[in-house]
Structure formats: C-alpha cells, structure tokens
Amino acid sequence: MSKAINKIIVYENKNFGGLTREFTSDVPDLASLNFNNCISSVKVIGQPWVGFERNNFRGQVSAFEEGKYSTIHLDNAISSLKLITENLEDPMITFYEHDNYGGKSLPCTSEQNLEYGNFDDEASSHTVQSGAWILYQNGPNEKGMRFLARAGENVAHYSDFDFSDRLSYVRPLKAGQPTVTSKVLWPQMIKGEETPAMIDQIIGVNYSDFPQEFTTQHSKEYEGSVTYEFKFSSKTIIEAGMELNIPLGSVSTSISNSINIKKEQRETITTREAVSISLPAKIPPHTKLHVNIMKLTSTVTVPVELTIDRNGKKKTESATLTCAQGNIIYAEYKSEKL
C-alpha cells in the first residue's frame, strides 16, 4: 500500500470550495502567501496539523487529524499552520493543581472529560511526557479556549495565557494511517495434505456395435474457489478499517497474484471461478463409460512479514496467511466392457 507525503489542503469556502492551497511543511505566516484568515474547510493526509489564530504558531488552535473537514472551528481565523511530526504512540501528559508543577497531579494517557472527575477546572501547569495534546476549556464540540501541548514543551504557568483553573477536557492527537508493505515468506510455507473428492458423475452406456455420441455437451462448467484467511498479530498496531495489498507472486497457478485485505474482526476473502471440463465425444461399442468429476482441496499456510512506516518510523510485525484451495477440478475416466 502506498501513500502520499504528509499534506494539508486548505480551502477558502466551506465544503471544499473556492481558492485552495496545499502545504507539506510548517507555514508560520499565511499572510505572506496571501491566504490569511480565509480558511473554511480542510483535508489532511498523513500526520495531524494544527491551525493557529495568529502567525508564528500563537494563540487559539484548531487541530486536524487525517480526514476531511467541511467546516472548521477557527473559520476564517487561521494565520499559521504546523505539522505535528513527533511520535504519537503511547501519549502521556501530567497536569498539576498549582503553578510550577505543584500540588496534586493528574497523569493522562488517553482522551479525558475532566468534568467527570475531581480535576475539572483545577489545573494550573503541565508536563508532556509523550505525544501531542489539545487542551480544551469546554470540550471539542463547544466554544472556548483551546491550546496545543507537545512533548518537551512544558508549561509552568497557565496564568500566562489566562487558562488557570479552566481546563475541562483533553485529548491526544492521533497519527495518520501508516504505510504498510508486506512480504510473503514462501520458503517457510507449510502445505497440508491434498484431498480429492468427487463432485459429479456422468455415466454413458453403449450396447450397440457402433460408437455412439456420449453427450451433446462437449464440456461442462464447475465452480472452484480459493479462500484466503489473514491473521494479524494479537499486538498489531494496524487499526481496523485499514486496507493493504498482499502480493502473492506466481508461486502457484491456482493462487491469485495478489489480494487486498481490510483489517476487520475477521479478514477472509473467497474468490470463485468457473472451471471447464472437457467431455469425451464418443462411447466405444459395448462399453459403459464413467466420467468422475473430481475436486482437489488443500491448505497452504505461510508467514507474512509486515513493515509499518508511520512518519518515517518503521516497525515490523508478523502475520499468517492461509489459503484453502478448491479450484483444481479434473475428470477421471473409467470404462468397462459389456
């Protein structure tokens, strides 16, 4: 699966209309590009972006994770844009009751509505251990102040921007979908036993002294199938809904060159095809002819190596592909003299 570079596309009007610009790196001053205070909708590919109401990444913020935004919080009020490049896995932030990280503390590793606990409107400083966070005065769907908190950028005095005892909601920014490449390790393939089974039988009898036509059909079609089951690691970081291509090469004429897998609760694909079997034209004199249509089934299991690239940081995971083949169909002939 290939994916474009981290990018934000901004539009002058709501619903992606009007003038448009594309950016792949920080923009400290949109006025210098004649696009200040005019953004009303956004599309993001890859890592999150944050829009600021003032130049040089100052003031209130509006965060955009990968996706499409037909309307935005800071409508016609964005003056600078920042690409979030840090590692967003395993985020953690710690809030403190007083300035300079004093008083009681509250560590957070996931999205939290502080109104449901004992720390609502209590924070006056914070330290960010990992990730990037958006801090809300009133919540993501409500009006109020919003600020960006990033790893290594600790804030000792919320009073510096009139935010003391106003924090009510926090959430970590999520990384964009990674690029995933796969390698099927065919040398490690385990092949199960092949099992033949009869799926049809055609019998013709000729009592005469002359060859007789066996059937008016010269061939007959049967349905064959191959079922592919893909199992991710129990600790996979690949999220549900993501699609990836598994190139299978030309290891077998009965297996597809590639398959597309979508990460779901069960990743199973069945391909079906018509297999044509030629039938004999004549039956010899004084002969009973049996045509047995056979289907050969077998199972192949092979490990798959997945390389996950998220914003230049790579991880390797193991997965397993099982192919249940049932598309090898052939005819067996047996004749007996009468």
TrEMBL record:
Gene3D superfamilies: Crystallins, Proaerolysin, chain A, domain 3. Keywords: Repeat. GO terms for biological process: lens development in camera-type eye; visual perception. GO terms for molecular function: structural constituent of eye lens. Residues 6-46, 47-85 form the Beta/gamma crystallin 'Greek key' domain. The keyword Transcription does not apply. PROSITE patterns: CRYSTALLIN_BETA_GAMMA. The keyword Repeat applies. It comes from the Eukaryota. PANTHER family: BETA/GAMMA CRYSTALLIN, BETA_GAMMA CRYSTALLIN 'GREEK KEY' DOMAIN-CONTAINING PROTEIN. This is Epidermal differentiation-specific protein-like. The lineage of its organism: Eukaryota, Metazoa, Chordata, Craniata, Vertebrata. The gene is LOC117350359.
